[in-house]
Structures are given as C-alpha cells and as structure tokens.
Amino acid sequence: MAAEPLPQSFYARETEVVARELLGCVLECRAPDGTASGRIVETEAYVGEHDLACHAAAGLTKRTAPLYGPPGISYVYFIYGVHWCFNAVTRAEGEPSAVLVRAIEPLQGIALMRARRPAARRDLDLTNGPGKLCAALAITGAHNALSLQHGPVVIRRGEPIAASRVEVTPRIGIRESADWPLRWIVADSAYVSRTPAGFPRTPAKD
C-alpha cells in the first residue's frame, strides 16, 4: 500500500530543510496513460527574492505567482523552450521559495517512462535531470499551482536517507548565486544528474 502524501505542514518550513528531507520521498504522477513514480535522489533549494537564481528575484508576476502561494503546491515552469521543471513550494504564503526536484530513481511505471523518453538509451538516463524526470512522469504546465496532497502529482513519504549518504554542493547550471551550497544529493545513487568536475562536495549534517 502506498504511503500517504506529505502533508502541507511538511512544506511550511525553511526551504533548505525541505530540500534535504525530500530525499528518499516518492514523486508520483497519475496521467491518462498510467501512473509513474520515482524516489527523489537530488534536490535544489531556491530561497526567495534575494536569491538571484530564484524566479522570485523578478518579483510577483503571472509566472512566479505560485511561488508566493501556500506551501505544498507545485510550481512547474518551461525552460529553454524544451523542458518542464517541477518544484514544490515551501515556507509560508507570501514568502516565495521552492525546491526543484532534479533527479529521481524510477520505481513504478518504468515501461511508461521508456515510452515517454525514447531517446534514453539506459534506464539510468530516464530521470537523471529535471527535464528528463518531468518527461518520464508526464509532468507539464497543466500541473502548475496544484496541491501536492490531492494529485494528480503527489509526493509520498519514503525511506529516510541517512546523513552519511548525503552530500551538499552548489546548484547546477545557473549564473547568479552560483556558489551557494543549496543542492542535496544521495551520493551513492546512480540516478543523480552529473556533477560538474571540481564542484565542492560537503557531507550533510544530521
């Protein structure tokens, strides 16, 4: 039996705490052609208007409105004219911040993921990036600003990941605030997206 979705109170905390504790939880999307899910193994925190890498740095706009909404809703945006990216909104309403889910380990619906991601040569490549996992799970802009407690996209409780297995690095692929250590990875997971050479890695604290 599947675990219950994480309650809204889980997200109503500091973004860094949520980003760390989402590791090991299960991201699931129900779509007309079936349900697929995966264990979260990589996250990044985006922490407000002062964070120049966060979309909230532009202030409240039609695009960024979900970031200012209640905790525990989705923020899904299009990037590079190609990929969707999935985020979970955190902190209190009016405090714009979110956690980007960057990679998952496939669990349910792997055949569906293969059909949705025909360019992936290996199962390891199905969901090892934010755009890849959205394609594999069929997450699109239609899932923006929706409750993560009531679906069709939910995040369920999973197995806690021990601090000894977690590392913290700077975020990937950004120009602003690029040295901030706000990326959490399950270091021994083969499904984490590639970490650039020379990136500093520090063990997570309990």
Describe, in plain words, how this protein is organized in 3D.
About 15% of the residues lie in helices and about 30% in strands. It is of the alpha+beta class and about 210 residues long. Strands 1, 2, 3, 4, 5, 6, 7, 8 and 9 form a 9-stranded antiparallel beta sheet that branches. The radius of gyration is 16 Å and the shape is globular.
- Kindly report how far apart the N and C termini lie: 29 Å
Q: Per DSSP, what share of the residues sits in E-state strands of 2 or more residues?
A: 25-35%
How many domain regions?
A: 1
Task: Assign an overall shape.
Answer: globular
**Name given to the CATH homologous superfamily:** Methylpurine-DNA glycosylase (MPG)
- CATH topology-level fold name: 3-methyladenine DNA Glycosylase, Chain A
Average pLDDT metric? 95
CATH architecture: Roll
Radius of gyration: 16 Å
Number of strands: 9
The major β-sheet equals: 9 strands, antiparallel
